[in-house]
Amino acid sequence: VYLIDEYKASRCCPTCRNDSLRTFRRVPNPRPYQRERYPTAVCHGLLKCSNLYCRPAMAAPDRYRLWNRNVAACLNYMHILRGLRCNGMVPHRFRRVAVAPTRRRRRVDDQEQPRTRRRTDDSPS
Which intervals of the chain are annotated as region Disordered (predicted)? Predict the structure, then answer.
């Protein structure tokens, strides 16, 4: 049993293997109570690959390669699973970036000195 992180699974194109799948289609809003305020909504189920190198593989180079979001995610899951089986690692394009901590660390000589509070006002207490 493998636990697979879904990070970027539906954003990477299975053909060109770049983070280039984007939403593009607007449809009439399926929510009748919101149609007056928002007449159209973005269709998240259909994605196009915006990579220029992915387009010439099609019969007409002026068209985009279209993907169903779930099919693209499933093919990317298979790619992740193959990577885990081969070398025990998730491919780089599906990994989360580790962010360094933002807290500043005190220097060693600062830690040895006791901290003293300073008053900003001149009134005695």
Answer: 100-125
